[in-house]
Design brief:
58% helix, mainly alpha, 19 residues
């Protein structure tokens, strides 16, 4: 995405992928 910087949802997504 391009709004990941201001998207709080991407953080949880990345966390899920990193886990």
């Amino acid at each position: 995405p391009f709004n990941v910087a201001r998207n709080p949802y991407w953080k949880k997504y990345v966390t899920a992928l990193a886990n």
